[in-house]
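New to this. Help decode the following:
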Amino acid sequence: MKAFSRSLFARLSRRLIVLQLVALILVVIVASIPETERRGMPDLDESVLDNIADNLEGAGDSLAVRRDPELAEIMEANPDFWFLVGDDQGRSMNFGPVPNGVLPLFRDVGSVARTEIYWRGPDVGGGIIGRRIDSPIGMVSVISGGGPTLYPVLGRLQRIDPFYLLLLAGLMTLSALAIPYLLRKDLSGVERVADEAAHIDIDQPGARLTEANVPPELQVMVGAVNAALSRLDEGLEKRKRFLATAAHELRTPLAILTMRIELMPPGPERNQLLLDVARLSSLANQLLDLQRLDGDHVHLERLDLCVLVARAVQDIAPLAVASQANLSFDAPSDAITILADEQSIIRVVTNLIQNAIAHGGRFVTIEVEVARPCELRVRDNGPGIPPEDRAQVFEPFFRRSSGTGSGLGLHLVRDIVSRHGATIHTQEPAGGGVEFIVRFPPA
Protein backbone atom coordinates (compact mmCIF):
# COMPACT_ATOMS: atom_id res chain seq x y z
CA MET A 1 0.00 0.00 0.00
CA LYS A 2 2.85 2.38 0.84
CA ALA A 3 4.55 1.64 -2.51
CA PHE A 4 1.27 2.39 -4.33
CA SER A 5 0.87 5.74 -2.51
CA ARG A 6 4.34 6.76 -3.76
CA SER A 7 3.72 5.65 -7.35
CA LEU A 8 3.54 8.11 -10.23
CA PHE A 9 0.00 6.93 -10.98
CA ALA A 10 -1.22 7.65 -7.42
CA ARG A 11 0.55 11.03 -7.21
CA LEU A 12 -0.85 12.21 -10.56
CA SER A 13 -4.36 11.06 -9.63
CA ARG A 14 -4.30 12.88 -6.30
CA ARG A 15 -2.87 16.06 -7.76
CA LEU A 16 -5.33 16.22 -10.65
CA ILE A 17 -8.31 15.65 -8.33
CA VAL A 18 -7.05 18.28 -5.86
CA LEU A 19 -6.39 20.68 -8.75
CA GLN A 20 -9.94 20.19 -9.96
CA LEU A 21 -11.35 20.88 -6.49
CA VAL A 22 -9.21 24.01 -6.15
CA ALA A 23 -10.37 25.21 -9.57
CA LEU A 24 -14.01 24.68 -8.56
CA ILE A 25 -13.52 26.59 -5.30
CA LEU A 26 -11.88 29.45 -7.19
CA VAL A 27 -14.79 29.56 -9.65
CA VAL A 28 -17.26 29.75 -6.74
CA ILE A 29 -15.25 32.52 -5.09
CA VAL A 30 -15.00 34.54 -8.30
CA ALA A 31 -18.68 33.98 -9.09
CA SER A 32 -19.67 35.20 -5.62
CA ILE A 33 -17.98 38.56 -6.08
CA PRO A 34 -20.79 41.13 -6.54
CA GLU A 35 -20.98 43.33 -9.59
CA THR A 36 -19.32 46.71 -9.21
CA GLU A 37 -22.61 48.56 -8.75
CA ARG A 38 -23.76 46.07 -6.07
CA ARG A 39 -20.70 46.06 -3.90
CA GLY A 40 -21.51 47.05 -0.37
CA MET A 41 -25.16 46.01 -0.76
CA PRO A 42 -26.50 42.93 1.11
CA ASP A 43 -27.87 39.77 -0.51
CA LEU A 44 -31.42 39.07 0.70
CA ASP A 45 -32.13 35.57 2.00
CA GLU A 46 -34.45 33.88 -0.52
CA SER A 47 -35.43 31.14 1.94
CA VAL A 48 -37.81 33.71 3.45
CA LEU A 49 -39.95 33.45 0.30
CA ASP A 50 -40.40 29.70 0.83
CA ASN A 51 -41.26 30.28 4.49
CA ILE A 52 -43.98 32.76 3.53
CA ALA A 53 -45.44 30.44 0.87
CA ASP A 54 -45.49 27.46 3.26
CA ASN A 55 -47.63 29.42 5.74
CA LEU A 56 -50.19 30.84 3.29
CA GLU A 57 -53.91 30.30 3.82
CA GLY A 58 -56.79 31.13 1.48
CA ALA A 59 -59.93 32.63 3.02
CA GLY A 60 -62.50 33.38 0.33
CA ASP A 61 -61.30 36.30 -1.76
CA SER A 62 -58.37 37.08 0.52
CA LEU A 63 -55.06 35.55 1.55
CA ALA A 64 -53.55 35.23 5.01
CA VAL A 65 -50.26 34.08 6.52
CA ARG A 66 -49.91 31.96 9.63
CA ARG A 67 -47.22 33.18 11.96
CA ASP A 68 -45.13 30.13 12.72
CA PRO A 69 -42.25 30.61 15.18
CA GLU A 70 -39.59 30.95 12.48
CA LEU A 71 -41.54 33.54 10.47
CA ALA A 72 -42.47 35.43 13.64
CA GLU A 73 -38.79 35.56 14.61
CA ILE A 74 -37.91 37.03 11.19
CA MET A 75 -40.61 39.66 11.54
CA GLU A 76 -39.43 40.68 15.01
CA ALA A 77 -35.73 40.74 14.08
CA ASN A 78 -36.27 42.84 10.94
CA PRO A 79 -38.58 45.83 11.54
CA ASP A 80 -38.40 46.85 7.84
CA PHE A 81 -39.40 43.37 6.65
CA TRP A 82 -42.29 43.38 4.19
CA PHE A 83 -43.78 41.13 1.52
CA LEU A 84 -46.44 40.98 -1.19
CA VAL A 85 -48.30 37.80 -2.20
CA GLY A 86 -50.56 37.16 -5.22
CA ASP A 87 -52.09 34.05 -6.77
CA ASP A 88 -53.63 33.04 -10.11
CA GLN A 89 -57.16 33.89 -8.87
CA GLY A 90 -56.31 37.53 -8.47
CA ARG A 91 -56.14 37.40 -4.70
CA SER A 92 -53.35 39.35 -3.05
CA MET A 93 -52.09 40.57 0.30
CA ASN A 94 -49.24 42.57 1.75
CA PHE A 95 -47.48 42.78 5.06
CA GLY A 96 -45.16 45.26 6.69
CA PRO A 97 -43.89 48.68 5.65
CA VAL A 98 -44.00 48.23 1.89
CA PRO A 99 -41.97 51.11 0.33
CA ASN A 100 -43.99 53.59 -1.71
CA GLY A 101 -41.90 52.99 -4.79
CA VAL A 102 -42.65 49.26 -4.82
CA LEU A 103 -46.44 49.10 -5.08
CA PRO A 104 -46.63 50.83 -8.49
CA LEU A 105 -44.12 48.28 -9.86
CA PHE A 106 -46.17 45.24 -8.86
CA ARG A 107 -49.83 46.11 -9.37
CA ASP A 108 -50.47 42.50 -10.55
CA VAL A 109 -48.37 40.55 -8.05
CA GLY A 110 -49.66 37.14 -9.16
CA SER A 111 -48.12 37.52 -12.63
CA VAL A 112 -44.54 37.84 -11.37
CA ALA A 113 -42.39 34.78 -12.17
CA ARG A 114 -39.10 36.02 -10.75
CA THR A 115 -37.62 39.35 -9.82
CA GLU A 116 -34.46 40.63 -8.24
CA ILE A 117 -33.99 44.37 -7.94
CA TYR A 118 -31.26 46.16 -6.06
CA TRP A 119 -31.00 49.92 -6.01
CA ARG A 120 -29.97 52.61 -3.65
CA GLY A 121 -32.59 54.70 -1.92
CA PRO A 122 -34.07 55.25 1.53
CA ASP A 123 -37.53 54.01 0.51
CA VAL A 124 -36.46 50.62 -0.78
CA GLY A 125 -34.12 49.35 1.91
CA GLY A 126 -31.53 47.92 -0.44
CA GLY A 127 -33.37 45.41 -2.60
CA ILE A 128 -36.37 43.38 -3.68
CA ILE A 129 -36.54 39.66 -4.36
CA GLY A 130 -39.45 37.59 -5.61
CA ARG A 131 -40.37 34.38 -7.42
CA ARG A 132 -43.21 32.02 -8.18
CA ILE A 133 -43.55 29.23 -5.60
CA ASP A 134 -45.76 26.20 -5.03
CA SER A 135 -47.73 26.69 -1.78
CA PRO A 136 -50.52 24.86 0.11
CA ILE A 137 -53.10 26.94 -1.81
CA GLY A 138 -51.46 26.52 -5.23
CA MET A 139 -48.93 28.51 -7.22
CA VAL A 140 -48.32 31.98 -5.83
CA SER A 141 -45.89 34.82 -6.45
CA VAL A 142 -44.08 36.14 -3.37
CA ILE A 143 -42.15 39.42 -3.37
CA SER A 144 -40.21 40.60 -0.32
CA GLY A 145 -37.67 43.08 0.96
CA GLY A 146 -36.12 44.38 4.16
CA GLY A 147 -35.62 40.82 5.43
CA PRO A 148 -32.55 38.89 6.63
CA THR A 149 -29.40 39.03 4.53
CA LEU A 150 -26.63 36.58 3.67
CA TYR A 151 -22.93 36.72 2.89
CA PRO A 152 -22.41 37.20 -0.86
CA VAL A 153 -21.14 33.64 -1.40
CA LEU A 154 -24.16 32.08 0.33
CA GLY A 155 -26.49 34.45 -1.45
CA ARG A 156 -25.16 33.44 -4.84
CA LEU A 157 -25.26 29.73 -3.98
CA GLN A 158 -28.82 30.07 -2.73
CA ARG A 159 -29.95 31.27 -6.14
CA ILE A 160 -28.50 28.19 -7.88
CA ASP A 161 -31.05 25.55 -8.81
CA PRO A 162 -30.51 22.42 -6.61
CA PHE A 163 -30.67 20.33 -9.78
CA TYR A 164 -27.49 21.97 -11.04
CA LEU A 165 -25.80 21.46 -7.67
CA LEU A 166 -26.59 17.74 -7.86
CA LEU A 167 -25.43 17.68 -11.46
CA LEU A 168 -22.17 19.39 -10.46
CA ALA A 169 -21.64 16.92 -7.58
CA GLY A 170 -22.24 14.02 -9.96
CA LEU A 171 -19.80 15.41 -12.51
CA MET A 172 -17.17 15.91 -9.80
CA THR A 173 -17.61 12.32 -8.61
CA LEU A 174 -17.46 11.02 -12.17
CA SER A 175 -14.32 13.06 -12.80
CA ALA A 176 -12.68 11.78 -9.60
CA LEU A 177 -13.33 8.21 -10.78
CA ALA A 178 -12.41 8.86 -14.41
CA ILE A 179 -9.05 10.53 -13.70
CA PRO A 180 -7.42 7.38 -12.18
CA TYR A 181 -8.95 5.21 -14.92
CA LEU A 182 -7.68 7.42 -17.74
CA LEU A 183 -4.26 7.77 -16.10
CA ARG A 184 -3.95 4.02 -15.66
CA LYS A 185 -4.93 3.54 -19.30
CA ASP A 186 -2.39 6.11 -20.50
CA LEU A 187 0.33 4.67 -18.26
CA SER A 188 -0.44 1.04 -19.13
CA GLY A 189 2.55 1.06 -21.48
CA VAL A 190 4.83 2.05 -18.58
CA GLU A 191 3.49 -0.78 -16.38
CA ARG A 192 4.03 -3.25 -19.23
CA VAL A 193 7.61 -2.02 -19.73
CA ALA A 194 8.28 -2.43 -15.99
CA ASP A 195 6.92 -5.99 -16.11
CA GLU A 196 9.03 -6.80 -19.18
CA ALA A 197 12.15 -5.36 -17.51
CA ALA A 198 11.51 -7.49 -14.41
CA HIS A 199 11.53 -10.65 -16.57
CA ILE A 200 14.78 -9.93 -18.45
CA ASP A 201 17.05 -12.94 -17.95
CA ILE A 202 20.67 -13.35 -19.01
CA ASP A 203 19.86 -16.95 -19.99
CA GLN A 204 17.19 -15.73 -22.43
CA PRO A 205 18.84 -13.23 -24.79
CA GLY A 206 16.89 -11.16 -27.28
CA ALA A 207 14.45 -9.62 -24.78
CA ARG A 208 13.42 -6.06 -25.61
CA LEU A 209 11.10 -3.50 -24.01
CA THR A 210 7.97 -2.59 -25.98
CA GLU A 211 7.78 1.09 -26.91
CA ALA A 212 4.08 1.06 -27.91
CA ASN A 213 1.73 3.12 -25.67
CA VAL A 214 4.70 4.55 -23.76
CA PRO A 215 4.58 8.35 -23.22
CA PRO A 216 6.96 10.20 -25.60
CA GLU A 217 8.94 11.48 -22.60
CA LEU A 218 9.83 7.87 -21.68
CA GLN A 219 10.30 6.47 -25.20
CA VAL A 220 13.83 7.89 -25.32
CA MET A 221 14.75 6.02 -22.14
CA VAL A 222 13.10 2.79 -23.37
CA GLY A 223 15.01 3.10 -26.66
CA ALA A 224 18.28 3.61 -24.78
CA VAL A 225 17.61 0.51 -22.63
CA ASN A 226 16.85 -1.55 -25.75
CA ALA A 227 20.08 -0.35 -27.36
CA ALA A 228 22.00 -1.35 -24.20
CA LEU A 229 20.33 -4.78 -24.25
CA SER A 230 21.38 -5.23 -27.88
CA ARG A 231 24.99 -4.43 -27.00
CA LEU A 232 24.87 -6.86 -24.07
CA ASP A 233 23.48 -9.62 -26.30
CA GLU A 234 26.24 -9.03 -28.84
CA GLY A 235 28.91 -9.11 -26.13
CA LEU A 236 27.52 -12.30 -24.58
CA GLU A 237 27.32 -13.96 -27.98
CA LYS A 238 30.97 -13.09 -28.71
CA ARG A 239 32.02 -14.45 -25.33
CA LYS A 240 30.12 -17.69 -25.90
CA ARG A 241 31.64 -18.15 -29.35
CA PHE A 242 35.13 -17.53 -27.97
CA LEU A 243 34.71 -20.04 -25.12
CA ALA A 244 33.23 -22.66 -27.44
CA THR A 245 36.01 -22.20 -30.00
CA ALA A 246 38.76 -22.26 -27.36
CA ALA A 247 37.36 -25.38 -25.69
CA HIS A 248 36.91 -27.15 -29.03
CA GLU A 249 40.44 -26.29 -30.18
CA LEU A 250 41.87 -27.66 -26.92
CA ARG A 251 40.34 -31.11 -27.33
CA THR A 252 42.58 -32.29 -30.20
CA PRO A 253 45.96 -31.37 -28.62
CA LEU A 254 44.79 -32.79 -25.29
CA ALA A 255 43.84 -36.07 -26.95
CA ILE A 256 47.27 -36.24 -28.64
CA LEU A 257 48.98 -35.41 -25.33
CA THR A 258 47.02 -38.16 -23.56
CA MET A 259 48.09 -40.74 -26.16
CA ARG A 260 51.75 -39.78 -25.79
CA ILE A 261 51.59 -39.95 -21.99
CA GLU A 262 49.99 -43.40 -22.16
CA LEU A 263 53.01 -44.57 -24.20
CA MET A 264 55.33 -43.64 -21.33
CA PRO A 265 56.59 -46.36 -18.99
CA PRO A 266 54.29 -46.98 -16.01
CA GLY A 267 55.11 -45.02 -12.89
CA PRO A 268 53.99 -42.24 -10.52
CA GLU A 269 55.02 -39.49 -12.94
CA ARG A 270 52.95 -41.00 -15.77
CA ASN A 271 49.91 -41.34 -13.48
CA GLN A 272 50.20 -37.72 -12.34
CA LEU A 273 50.47 -36.46 -15.91
CA LEU A 274 47.40 -38.47 -16.88
CA LEU A 275 45.48 -36.89 -13.98
CA ASP A 276 46.56 -33.40 -14.99
CA VAL A 277 45.58 -33.93 -18.63
CA ALA A 278 42.27 -35.45 -17.51
CA ARG A 279 41.51 -32.29 -15.54
CA LEU A 280 42.27 -30.15 -18.60
CA SER A 281 40.08 -32.36 -20.78
CA SER A 282 37.31 -32.19 -18.19
CA LEU A 283 37.51 -28.38 -18.12
CA ALA A 284 37.30 -28.20 -21.93
CA ASN A 285 34.33 -30.57 -21.96
CA GLN A 286 32.63 -28.58 -19.20
CA LEU A 287 32.98 -25.36 -21.20
CA LEU A 288 31.50 -27.07 -24.26
CA ASP A 289 28.66 -28.47 -22.16
CA LEU A 290 27.92 -25.02 -20.76
CA GLN A 291 27.71 -23.61 -24.28
CA ARG A 292 25.49 -26.49 -25.36
CA LEU A 293 23.14 -25.88 -22.42
CA ASP A 294 23.07 -22.12 -23.04
CA GLY A 295 22.03 -22.83 -26.61
CA ASP A 296 19.22 -25.12 -25.37
CA HIS A 297 20.65 -27.97 -27.46
CA VAL A 298 19.18 -30.54 -25.08
CA HIS A 299 17.14 -33.41 -26.51
CA LEU A 300 14.98 -35.18 -23.92
CA GLU A 301 14.00 -38.81 -24.49
CA ARG A 302 12.92 -41.80 -22.42
CA LEU A 303 16.11 -43.43 -21.10
CA ASP A 304 17.07 -46.00 -18.47
CA LEU A 305 18.83 -44.18 -15.62
CA CYS A 306 20.63 -47.39 -14.57
CA VAL A 307 22.16 -47.84 -18.03
CA LEU A 308 23.25 -44.19 -18.27
CA VAL A 309 24.95 -44.20 -14.86
CA ALA A 310 26.63 -47.57 -15.54
CA ARG A 311 28.06 -46.21 -18.82
CA ALA A 312 29.40 -43.09 -17.08
CA VAL A 313 31.00 -45.17 -14.30
CA GLN A 314 32.61 -47.46 -16.88
CA ASP A 315 34.04 -44.49 -18.81
CA ILE A 316 35.61 -42.86 -15.76
CA ALA A 317 36.84 -46.06 -14.10
CA PRO A 318 40.39 -45.80 -15.59
CA LEU A 319 40.77 -42.32 -14.06
CA ALA A 320 39.62 -43.65 -10.68
CA VAL A 321 42.14 -46.49 -10.88
CA ALA A 322 44.93 -44.10 -11.83
CA SER A 323 43.98 -41.92 -8.85
CA GLN A 324 44.07 -44.97 -6.51
CA ALA A 325 40.37 -44.46 -5.69
CA ASN A 326 37.98 -47.33 -4.91
CA LEU A 327 34.92 -46.96 -7.18
CA SER A 328 31.77 -49.10 -6.86
CA PHE A 329 28.37 -49.06 -8.54
CA ASP A 330 25.01 -50.45 -7.48
CA ALA A 331 21.63 -50.32 -9.28
CA PRO A 332 18.35 -52.28 -9.45
CA SER A 333 18.13 -55.09 -11.98
CA ASP A 334 15.11 -53.62 -13.77
CA ALA A 335 14.92 -50.29 -15.59
CA ILE A 336 14.23 -46.88 -14.04
CA THR A 337 12.96 -44.69 -16.87
CA ILE A 338 13.39 -40.92 -16.95
CA LEU A 339 13.08 -38.17 -19.56
CA ALA A 340 16.65 -37.02 -20.10
CA ASP A 341 19.40 -35.97 -22.48
CA GLU A 342 21.93 -38.82 -22.63
CA GLN A 343 25.14 -36.77 -22.78
CA SER A 344 23.94 -34.40 -20.05
CA ILE A 345 23.21 -37.17 -17.52
CA ILE A 346 26.56 -38.84 -18.26
CA ARG A 347 28.21 -35.45 -17.61
CA VAL A 348 26.40 -35.20 -14.23
CA VAL A 349 27.69 -38.60 -13.10
CA THR A 350 31.20 -37.93 -14.44
CA ASN A 351 31.47 -34.55 -12.71
CA LEU A 352 30.25 -35.89 -9.37
CA ILE A 353 32.80 -38.75 -9.48
CA GLN A 354 35.60 -36.41 -10.58
CA ASN A 355 34.70 -34.10 -7.71
CA ALA A 356 35.02 -37.01 -5.27
CA ILE A 357 38.39 -38.03 -6.77
CA ALA A 358 39.72 -34.46 -6.67
CA HIS A 359 38.71 -33.73 -3.07
CA GLY A 360 38.62 -37.19 -1.48
CA GLY A 361 42.36 -37.81 -1.48
CA ARG A 362 44.24 -41.06 -2.18
CA PHE A 363 42.43 -44.34 -1.56
CA VAL A 364 39.06 -42.56 -1.28
CA THR A 365 36.05 -44.85 -1.53
CA ILE A 366 33.39 -43.66 -3.99
CA GLU A 367 29.98 -45.34 -4.08
CA VAL A 368 27.60 -44.66 -6.98
CA GLU A 369 24.03 -45.88 -6.48
CA VAL A 370 20.80 -45.71 -8.48
CA ALA A 371 17.73 -46.11 -6.25
CA ARG A 372 13.98 -46.00 -6.66
CA PRO A 373 11.88 -44.19 -7.54
CA CYS A 374 14.28 -42.06 -9.67
CA GLU A 375 17.30 -41.27 -7.56
CA LEU A 376 21.06 -41.01 -8.13
CA ARG A 377 23.44 -41.02 -5.14
CA VAL A 378 27.21 -40.38 -5.24
CA ARG A 379 29.00 -40.53 -1.88
CA ASP A 380 32.58 -40.69 -0.69
CA ASN A 381 34.38 -41.05 2.62
CA GLY A 382 36.69 -38.09 2.06
CA PRO A 383 36.97 -34.96 4.22
CA GLY A 384 33.48 -33.80 3.20
CA ILE A 385 32.24 -30.24 2.74
CA PRO A 386 32.33 -27.77 5.64
CA PRO A 387 28.82 -26.57 6.62
CA GLU A 388 29.69 -22.96 5.75
CA ASP A 389 30.56 -23.98 2.15
CA ARG A 390 27.57 -26.19 1.37
CA ALA A 391 25.39 -23.32 0.17
CA GLN A 392 28.10 -22.17 -2.27
CA VAL A 393 29.46 -25.38 -3.78
CA PHE A 394 27.11 -25.12 -6.78
CA GLU A 395 28.06 -21.51 -7.57
CA PRO A 396 30.28 -21.01 -10.66
CA PHE A 397 34.04 -20.76 -10.01
CA PHE A 398 33.64 -21.47 -6.29
CA ARG A 399 36.62 -23.40 -4.92
CA ARG A 400 37.56 -24.25 -1.38
CA SER A 401 40.91 -22.98 -0.22
CA SER A 402 42.46 -26.42 -0.70
CA GLY A 403 40.68 -27.14 -3.98
CA THR A 404 42.42 -27.56 -7.32
CA GLY A 405 39.44 -27.73 -9.68
CA SER A 406 38.01 -25.10 -12.00
CA GLY A 407 34.91 -24.44 -9.90
CA LEU A 408 32.63 -25.24 -12.86
CA GLY A 409 31.92 -28.95 -12.35
CA LEU A 410 29.22 -28.76 -9.66
CA HIS A 411 27.76 -25.60 -11.20
CA LEU A 412 27.32 -27.49 -14.48
CA VAL A 413 25.76 -30.40 -12.56
CA ARG A 414 23.16 -28.10 -10.99
CA ASP A 415 22.41 -26.49 -14.37
CA ILE A 416 21.82 -29.85 -16.03
CA VAL A 417 19.75 -31.15 -13.11
CA SER A 418 17.48 -28.07 -13.06
CA ARG A 419 16.93 -28.26 -16.84
CA HIS A 420 15.67 -31.81 -16.34
CA GLY A 421 13.21 -30.68 -13.66
CA ALA A 422 15.24 -32.54 -11.03
CA THR A 423 16.73 -31.46 -7.69
CA ILE A 424 20.15 -31.92 -6.09
CA HIS A 425 21.31 -31.51 -2.52
CA THR A 426 24.14 -32.65 -0.27
CA GLN A 427 24.24 -34.41 3.06
CA GLU A 428 26.86 -35.96 5.33
CA PRO A 429 26.72 -39.78 5.48
CA ALA A 430 26.94 -41.61 8.80
CA GLY A 431 30.60 -42.54 8.21
CA GLY A 432 31.67 -39.03 7.19
CA GLY A 433 32.47 -37.56 3.80
CA VAL A 434 29.76 -36.15 1.54
CA GLU A 435 26.80 -37.53 -0.41
CA PHE A 436 25.18 -35.87 -3.46
CA ILE A 437 21.55 -36.88 -4.04
CA VAL A 438 19.83 -36.17 -7.38
CA ARG A 439 16.08 -36.80 -7.63
CA PHE A 440 14.55 -36.96 -11.13
CA PRO A 441 10.85 -36.71 -11.93
CA PRO A 442 9.47 -40.03 -13.24
CA ALA A 443 8.94 -40.28 -17.01
Observations:
- The domain at 298-439 is CATH 3.30.565.10 (Heat Shock Protein 90).
- The chain has a mean pLDDT of 82.
- The chain has twelve helices and 16 strands.
- The radius of gyration is 48 Å.
